């Protein structure tokens, strides 16, 4: 269970950082930096998990003279860390800039006026970082020598990650371009139904689930090694499962679908779109 105990400082850092953000931004009723705060949380916890053994050895055990070079870590550790870093910086900056450009985030129009509820969302963000990041933290908190060499499973996992990231980025850019064209009066469409949005009503979220499935799969060879307790790979699978439930059943798709149903209830074009384009998976159901 030593591996699990090494996750405690990582989780504690996630909650500490988001608490600091809450102390700063909740009194200001400022939600513009919520997603950027999440990105900072992801990068910091990933870095801490990667360097935790060295930090413990130097400052707790006093058995380390100097910190290891970045390239001294196992290739799999570097890959999962880079995967999270690329995703977090891209998504955090995209959502953060969108919020600042729009003058705020409509998700928090009412929430930010309720201090306790707004603070809860910052703590919920720390929980999201802790749970979804499990495959990465598990992979990083053990020494580099226990990780097996990269194999076909890892390359397939990288393919899933890269393809899913491309899907998410493309969907976001298509919607941004559509919105900017609408602002320039180049079209009068009330909702986007072109590009990837013609095969799924939420293609960006499909990409998000694929990203975390790929990261979990990339960590899986290490999590099945003797350095981890039996069942660690299954425990780490909470990551993509949690993301799926969160997006598909809770705070992702359902509120967006309810808002669209209310806004376009008398729009025959939207009703046709809803009845013909799958709600999530391109090959799935429209409901």
UniProtKB/TrEMBL annotation:
Against InterPro entries, the record matches this protein to: UstE-like (IPR010721)
Domain of life according to the entry: Eukaryota
* Gene3D superfamilies membership: 1.20.120.1630
Pfam families (alphabetical): DUF1295 (PF06966)
Q: Where are the transmembrane segments?
A: 6-26, 33-54, 74-97, 118-138
Q: What protein am I looking at?
A: Steroid 5-alpha reductase C-terminal domain-containing protein
Q: Record keywords: Oxidoreductase included?
A: no
Example GO CC term: the record gives: membrane
Keywords annotated in UniProt: Membrane, Transmembrane, Transmembrane helix
């Amino acid at each position: 269970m030593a591996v699990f105990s090494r996750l405690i400082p990582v989780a504690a850092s996630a909650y500490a950082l988001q608490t600091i953000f809450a102390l700063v931004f909740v009194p200001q009723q400022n939600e513009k930096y919520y997603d950027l705060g999440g990105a900072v949380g992801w990068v910091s916890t990933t870095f801490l998990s990667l360097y935790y053994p060295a930090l413990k050895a130097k400052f707790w055990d006093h058995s380390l003279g100097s910190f290891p070079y970045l390239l001294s870590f196992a290739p799999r550790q570097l890959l999962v860390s880079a995967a999270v870093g690329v995703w977090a910086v891209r998504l955090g900056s995209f959502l953060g800039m969108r919020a600042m450009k729009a003058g705020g985030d409509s998700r928090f129009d009412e929430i930010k006026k309720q201090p306790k509820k707004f603070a809860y969302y910052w703590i919920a963000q720390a929980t999201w970082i802790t749970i979804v990041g499990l495959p990465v933290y598990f992979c990083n908190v053990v020494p580099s020598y226990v990780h097996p060499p990269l194999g076909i499973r890892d390359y397939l996992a990288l393919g899933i990650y890269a393809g899913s990231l491309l899907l998410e980025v493309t969907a976001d850019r298509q919607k941004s371009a559509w919105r900017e064209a609408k602002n320039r009066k180049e079209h009068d469409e009330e909702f986007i139904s072109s590009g990837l949005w013609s095969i799924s009503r939420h293609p960006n979220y499909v990409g998000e689930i694929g990203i975390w499935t790929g990261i979990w799969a990339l960590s899986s060879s290490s999590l099945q090694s003797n350095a981890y307790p039996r069942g660690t790979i299954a425990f780490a699978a909470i990551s993509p499962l949690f993301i799926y439930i969160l997006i598909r059943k809770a705070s992702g798709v359902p509120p967006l679908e309810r808002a669209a149903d209310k806004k376009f209830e008398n729009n025959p074009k939207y009703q046709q779109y809803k009845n013909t384009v799958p709600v999530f998976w391109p090959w799935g159901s429209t409901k």
